[in-house]
Amino acid sequence: MTALAEQGTPRAAQGYAGGRRDVVIDTQPKGDTAATVAIASISDQDWYVSRTHGVYHIPACAKGEPYALLLLTSRGDVIDLGDNRRFPFTITAREIADDLLQDLHDHGIFVCAGARPSPDELAAAAARRDAYYHRLIGEGDTMWARGHSYREISDLHRRAAIALGVEREWAYVPMKLSECPACGEKVKSGVAVCKHCHAILDAEKAAQHGLGPAGRESPAKAVADSNAEPPAAKQPERKK
Ligand SMILES: [Zn+2]
User: Fold this and answer.
1) 129-157 average pLDDT score
2) What residues pack around ion ligand 1 (CB closer than 5 A)?
3) 79, 98, 117 — which closes off a domain?
4) How confident is the model at residue 138 (pLDDT cuts 50, 70, 90)?
5) How far apart are CA 166 and CA 160, in angstroms?
6) What is the pLDDT of residues 175-211, one digit of tens each?
7) Same domain, 8 and 91
8) To which H or E segment does residue 51 belong?
9) Distance, CA 197 to ligand 1 centroid (Å)?
């Protein structure tokens, strides 16, 4: 059993909006100041890997950047032998890197041979990630063919299809729909105007887009002005 399996698989965090950052894990060198190891990532996700010696954040590669970088140095850890006997030891940066990345190579994350990734290394990482994405898309196709169930398809599969720009029915995330109170047709949540009957569903938003209730001869008026306001009233504040 690998350490990864014992301690949970790496988690990807959503919504990271920062730029490329060089993150240095601060360590307390325990006598052994081994060389720094650089981890490069072309993944568009943040990854967090938890170990007894720390939580490691592999930053997402920001759009337009060639890669993100995480620098590792050696760390001290302790094995609890029981009976208050503890065995301190040092893990080298390279050992940490290899351990962290065992499940992440397919996502375009790798240990650089030098201080920065070379063009060849980046190209190889991209090729490996794309091959992985193609495998995932194949899996998604197989699962979809079996039962057309969105539940079987994971975010990983969807991301792969979206990342490669591949059109797949199963990669489509159903949009949240609600019913237009005027005509009963399905409309996207939060829209200002019903696309079916043109009823104004959000007067304030509609006004922002120049779609006031005034002068309309559609069912929109009936809905937006259900309080019998004169149609000339353009102030949406009353809806408050
Ligand atoms: Zn409608």
Assistant:
1) 90
2) 180, 182-183, 194, 196-197, 199
3) 117
4) very high
5) 8
6) 677 888 899 888 887 888 998 899 998 888 888 888 7
7) yes
8) strand 46-51
9) 4
